[in-house]
Amino acid sequence: MTKQKIKFSGDGSSGPARDESSVEEARDRLAGLLPDDALQDALEGLRPEEITGPGGLMSQLAGRVLESALGAELSGHVGYPPGQAPPGGAGNVRNGLTAKTVRTDLGPVHVRTPRDRDGSFEPQLVKKRQTGWRAWMTGCSTSMPAG
Predict the structure, then answer these.
(1) Angle (CA) 71 74 78, round 5°
(2) Distance between CA atoms of 94 and 30, rounded to whole angstroms?
(3) Residue 107: HSE in the Cβ half-sphere, 13 Å Cα cutoff
(4) Which residues span the domain enclosing 103?
(5) What is the C-alpha separation between 81 and 72, in angstroms, rounded?
């Protein structure tokens, strides 16, 4: 099981947009985990549609990133990471996953959103009943510098 180190604000809001240096730091950390030569090896022999087409590598990677971020959101909500007991004993606990398909510019992205026992978890990244991600992506792009 992988550890989730993504942090979200505790008030349930998505907070201010991250500055460009935070994004660059995340990209650099990922590049360290997946060096260019390893990425080239992984892509070798794949047809373009297997990379960018519906259900392709890009949409699968997007789904994994979203699932990891949603799991981190739930950790912030319930107050403890996966695999640990809730602080103070009984209380709100993790309660499985719900499958969901989100329409994106990459095509359909399959995501498993985490749930909590008392149903009070309201994810901010991909909200309940949200099926499209274009509006969210468009909103983020307005805070990015042009060019």
Answers:
(1) 140
(2) 28
(3) 13
(4) 53-81+92-141
(5) 8
Query: How many Cα neighbours within 13 Å face the side chain of 111?
Result: 33
Both tokens of residue 146?
A: 């042009």
Q: Evaluate if pTM is beyond 0.85.
A: no
Q: Is 17 helix (H, G, I), strand (E, B) or coil?
A: coil
Do the Cβ atoms of 105 and 119 come closer than 8 Å?
A: no
Give the pLDDT of the chain (147 residues) as one tens digit per residue: 444 455 544 444 444 455 678 889 988 998 899 899 999 999 999 999 999 998 899 999 999 999 999 999 999 999 999 988 888 877 889 999 999 999 988 889 999 999 999 999 999 999 988 888 764 444 444 333 333
Establish if 106 belongs to a structural domain. Answer: yes
In a domain, 108, yes or no: yes
User: Cα–Cα distances in Å, from 104 out to 36, 51, 62?
Assistant: 26, 15, 10
Domain assignment present for 77:
yes
Q: Is residue 20 part of a domain?
A: no
Q: Give the count of domains, the chain.
A: 1
